[in-house]
Write a structure and sequence with these properties.
The protein has 13 helices and 12 strands. The chain has 361 residues and is of the alpha+beta class. The strands form 2 sheets. It has a 9-stranded mixed β-sheet with strand order 1-5-6-12-11-10-7-9-8, sandwiched between helices. A 3-stranded antiparallel β-sheet has the order 2-4-3. InterPro entries: aa-tRNA-synth_II/BPL/LPL, HisRS-like_core, HisRS/HisZ.
Length: 361
């Protein structure tokens, strides 16, 4: 059997296992309208996706993942509750790592159910854990909902919170902004000149570029507002850093998170959801005494995750990307639902990585 045939056979095996969980097979087009993805991620998505032009569709992208089209399909006419599975190729540019293929298979499982989100999180993780249980993989979990709530609760301007939330999935940029907003790092060179005078007052030449005078003036005013804002209080920065650096087992971390919530009340509801999920995981037979929790886990994945996140890794093959990843993406259903929403959680397995990690589970 060729390598490609073996990967497709493994994908078919995984698809059948997800079907056995009651999931309906979903089919999505390889060519997706670019507009939706650009609205979700902005122009940054162009650096990760293959963009082309179709005479009827207009600007389009080769499918970078399945979740967005599956959510669109469900929000258009899906029943509730619903479970879907799918298998097929996705396409992502790998400019930072030539060893990784730009085209690879994904097999996924998605649950849309508003009755008990904690139970749905536990169900999806338990299904993946059972399917992958014989492959010798290490599981890790996180909770982006807690981080998002912590940032929203910071004592600072709404503009600064929006900037931090926008870059939460870009750890280096997030750190640079947090250091600047907290006064740990200086303002970028040249901004002090904007605090006085009118940079456009003596401008005789016409303004050349995509931005007009009104937009430039609005941007200058935003920069001045930022420079005048007081720094984020140091205790809040310390608590956020503590949260992002947290590494514990799921069974032990709930008490620690509740302690943090005393000084950072904004995360209280998210911590309650975490603790409910921990109980649901245990009820599904997951050994939470051995399940890792990492405070920053999931911060380099696609930006639609907004709650529970998980991954499975080949401990003996640190050179491999995650064999499986997943998480909760309630906000995505809100964006694509055009007025409706439903709690949703799911994940994907890469069959070629599962085989590379030591064969099928």
């Amino acid at each position: 059997m060729t390598e490609t045939a073996a990967i497709r056979a493994e994908a078919a095996r995984l698809l059948a296992l997800f079907e056995g969980q009651g999931a309906q097979v979903a089919e999505t087009s390889v060519l997706q309208p670019a507009e939706t993805l650009l609205d979700l991620y902005g122009e940054d998505i162009r650096a990760r996706a293959y963009v082309t032009t179709d005479p009827h569709m207009g600007e389009a992208m080769l499918r970078p993942d399945f979740t967005v089209p599956v959510v669109q399909m469900h929000m258009a006419d899906g029943a509730e509750p619903a479970r879907y599975t799918y298998a097929g190729e996705v396409f992502r540019k790998q400019e930072d790592d030539a060893r990784r293929a730009p085209e690879y298979m994904q097999v996924g499982y998605e649950v849309f159910d508003r009755s008990d989100p904690a139970a749905s999180d536990a169900e999806v993780f338990a299904v993946f854990s059972d399917i992958l249980g014989g492959a010798g993989l290490r599981a890790a979990t996180g909770d982006l909902g807690i981080l998002l709530a912590a940032v929203r609760g910071l004592t600072t301007t709404e503009r600064r919170k929006a900037a931090l939330l926008r870059h939460l999935w870009r750890p280096r940029r997030f750190r640079a902004l947090l250091d600047r907003f907290s006064g740990r790092a200086p303002q970028p060179e040249g901004r002090a000149a904007l605090a006085t005078g009118d940079p456009l007052a003596d401008l005789d030449a016409p303004i050349i570029g995509l931005r007009g005078r009104a937009e430039i003036e609005e941007r200058i005013e935003a920069l001045r507002e930022d420079m005048a804002a007081p720094p984020i209080p140091e205790p809040e920065v310390a608590l956020l850093n503590d949260l992002m650096s947290l590494r514990e087992t799921v069974s032990n971390v709930c008490e620690h998170l509740r302690d943090l919530a005393v000084d950072l009340p904004a995360i209280g509801d998210a911590v309650d959801r975490f603790c409910a999920r921990a109980s649901a995981l245990a009820a599904h037979g997951v050994d939470i005494d051995a399940l890792d929790f990492e405070g920053s886990f999931g911060r380099t994945t696609l930006e639609y995750y907004d709650g529970f996140v998980f991954g499975f890794y080949a401990a003996a093959r640190p050179d491999l990307p995650p064999v499986a990843t997943g998480g909760r993406y309630d906000a995505l259903t809100r964006v694509l639902g055009r007025g409706s929403e439903i709690p949703a959680v799911g994940g994907v397995i890469r069959p070629e990585l599962l085989l590379a990690a030591g064969g099928k589970a």
